Amino acid sequence: MPVSPRRPASLQGRIFRGSRVVAQGLLTRTELRSTAWRPLFRDVYADARLAVTHRTRCAAAARWVLPPGVAIAGRSAATLYGAASIADHEPIDVLVPAGQRFGPVSGLVVHTGAIAATDVAVRHGIPLTTPMRTCWDLAQWLPTEDAVAIVDRLAGQRLVALPRLRADSQGWIGKRGWKRMVRMAELADAGAESFPESRLRVRIVLAGVPAPVTQFVVERDGRFVARLDLAWPQLKVAVEYDGVWHDDPEQFHRDRRRLNRLLGADWIVLHVTAKRFREDFDGFLTELRQALTSRSQPR
């Protein structure tokens, strides 16, 4: 038989340790299982009416679950910095110092590694890896495309300086995983404006195509014409990523008018949709190489 929800005023809108409120007589163990409360971690509950985001869960883990020395890391740290987006229900990445025993814990992905004191910062009361250390962990834990996309955002928000990241990455040569770090640092670009654009750029470069310029501004007679997602300016070849906003007919019309102006300026503009990027990247890559080759030949 379902348990009737009961919400003491002192617990409304809060996150709390279940065993403590039971000991205080505020709720019974049976009442904790009612629809009034949402379990976040073992013995950690939230008011079910509270909006629980990934950030909320990180704060709860830091307060109620993580022992000293353990920090929020990876994609979760990047999310706390505003440089990534993780679904509310996804597990939290945490980094445990080598030699310290912790986990497994439901709702957490536990990674172990050496952590220097300078690798950890405290943000709104939450211990998390610094942006620079976060970059290293992203390089080790994620596919290159995904890692670079997040580092692009960290760089775009000036939380990471790419020249320093590239210089520091050389200092990690010889450590396990250093090649992934160096490659990620080389591929990162602070000019990227979206995760799909970053992934597209990285895949193009990894396929052996010269790196494009991001967000290149085309001008004619000193006047603005358009800004291109990816461009090879010397060859006047560009790639535009068509996101979901192109379902809007008015936006589609504006974009095609912009394309016509560019064609008037003798540009070749290739468009890539999410579907084509996912299902026919090889076909698109062939078209891009043909465009670049045709423009490389004397005219």
Strand content: 15-25%
Structural class: alpha+beta
Give the strand order of the largest sheet, numbering strands 1, 2, ... along the chain: 9-10-11-12
Uncertain residue ranges: none
- Counting DSSP E segments of at least 2 residues, the number of strands comes to 12
What is the helix fraction of residues, given as a range? Answer: 40-55%
Number of helical elements: 12
Shape: elongated
Biggest beta sheet attributes: 4 strands, mixed
Q: Evaluate the radius of gyration.
A: 24 Å
* Domain tally: 3
Order of helices and strands: EHHEEHEHEEEEHHHHHEEEHEHH
Average pLDDT score: 91
Rounded to the nearest angstrom, the distance between the terminal CA atoms is 81 Å
Please tell me about this protein's structure.
The protein is elongated. The longest helix has 16 residues, at 249-264. It has three domains: 9-47, no CATH class; 54-187, no CATH class; 195-296, VSR Endonuclease (Endonuclease, Chain A, 3-Layer(aba) Sandwich), CATH 3.40.960. It is of the alpha+beta class and 299 residues long. It starts with 14 loop residues before the first strand and ends with a helix. It has a four-stranded mixed β-sheet with strand order 9-10-11-12, with helices on both faces. The chain has a three-stranded antiparallel β-sheet with strand order 1-3-2. It has a three-stranded mixed β-sheet with strand order 4-5-6. The protein has helices at 18-23, 29-32, 54-64, 74-80, 131-141, 144-156, 162-171, 178-187, 195-206, 249-264, 274-279, 281-296, and strands at residues 15-17, 37-41, 44-47, 71-72, 92-97, 108-113, 120-123, 126-129, 213-220, 223-232, 237-242, 268-273. The protein contains twelve helices and twelve strands. Helices cover 41% and strands 21% of the residues.
